[in-house]
Amino acid sequence: MKAIVRSGSRAGRAARTIGGGVLVLVLSVGGYLGVLHLTGNFHSVVAGALYRSAQPTTFDIARYQKTYGIKTIINLRGENRGSSWYDAEIAEAKQLGIIHVDFRMSARRELTQAGAADLIGIFKRVEKPVLIHCKAGADRTGLAAALYVAAVAKLGETAAENQISIRYGHISLPVSAMDRTFEALERWLGFPDS
């Protein structure tokens, strides 16, 4: 009977230890994602050329222009006339003399090679520095940043793939449209098969 009690107490301690570890992990990831939200998920991709963020407020846009010299905003959510966030972004960009470009991407559907080529073409033509954003700055913005790093800055596959990562709030899964898109475009981008 004592062996069963000891075994049960060891199992209980193990369960508490595992549960505590899971709780710490969940709180850590949740805290990190909260920090991303509070900071607008703003990051430099290529200093002086490309920056990424979540949906910026008018205050953010003015601050990013003053601090980083933003000359172009590429909105990856597409045209949304009548939406308060969109109308405010357009008005602030116009007031500050920032070029505004709409490029509609879906976080749930893969971007085609033609769509990727269109976006890369926009990156090459617009005045820099550029700010790209979607809603959270994690998925669509991650893929767009990866395409810039791969095709415009030519910093390599690893640097490009790092743009689509948990660091920016993206959870990589085989079913993720952004992960599948980049994987499908790797050969076209000049990267060897993995």
Automatic annotation (TrEMBL):
It comes from the Bacteria. The keyword Transmembrane helix applies. This is Protein tyrosine/serine phosphatase. Keywords: Membrane, Transmembrane, Transmembrane helix. The chain crosses the membrane at residues 21-40. GO terms for molecular function: phosphoprotein phosphatase activity. Signal peptide: none annotated. InterPro entries: Prot-tyrosine_phosphatase-like, Tyr/Ser_Pase_IphP-type, Tyr_Pase_AS, Tyr_Pase_dom. Pfam families: Y_phosphatase3. Residues 129-149 form the Tyrosine specific protein phosphatases domain. Belongs to the protein-tyrosine phosphatase family.
